[in-house]
Amino acid sequence: MDDTMRSCREFTAVLSSAAPAPGGGGAAALTAAVGTALCGMVANLTTGKKAYSAVESDIQQLLSTTNALQEKLLDQVAADAEGFLPLAAVYALPKDAPDRAAKLVQASETACAVPLRIMELCVDALAAAGRLAVSDAGCAAAILGGALRAASLNVLVNTKAMGAAGAPLTERCLALLARGEAASDAVFKQVKDRLL
């Protein structure tokens, strides 16, 4: 079943169970989709308003972008569960199984793909939030920052298992994390300062 089709209560019940998926990556993707939806809400609230007529086309473009990002993030919930399956299979092998180490590296790399994609989408969504300096955009930035950090841990736990082979993925993860954290913090501060 597509976990995004569950109610919020059903999703969190499955998330808190002993089921291997959804896990941290799926939770990060769903959370990021919620943050992105807040960006869309802000854009929708300004669409067609006289005060924003000069930037109406920009708002429409922003709305289109956030809607697409939201859908892509929701798609990552199921993708993360699928990406974890090969890794779960390797962990089920006996420690002395032939080629277990090589299989672990390959499966860990596969398991990194979706959390890295979630991070990329979070960074893109944070760029959208940065163009909407109102309270809900600040909420979006805070939520997206949390989702970004959560996804990064899902990358780093897998690159650690890869040893030296994981270094390029770790580097990519840390670069995305730095960009996203800076954007999240900047938007949050801008909005908070406006409210004080």
Mind explaining what this structure looks like?
By secondary structure, the protein is an all-alpha fold. It has 6 helices and no strands. The longest helix is centred in the middle third of the chain and has 36 residues. It starts with 7 loop residues before the first helix and ends with a helix. The model has no long low-confidence stretch (mean pLDDT 93).
Helical residues, percent = over 70%
Alpha-carbon distance between the two ends: 45 Å
Integer average pLDDT: 93
- Return Rg in Å: 19 Å
SSE succession = HHHHHH
Derived from helix and strand composition plus strand pairing, the structural class reads mainly alpha
User: Tally the helices: what do you get?
Assistant: 6
Low-confidence stretches: none
Beta percentage is: under 5%
**Total beta strands:** 0
Q: Mind summarizing the main beta sheet? A: none
Oligomer: single chain
- Which shape, going by the Cα principal axes? elongated
Summary keywords:
196 residues; mainly alpha; 79% helix; elongated
In short, what is this structure?
The chain is mainly alpha-helical and 196 residues long. The chain has helices at 8-15, 24-46, 56-91, 100-129, 135-162, 167-195.
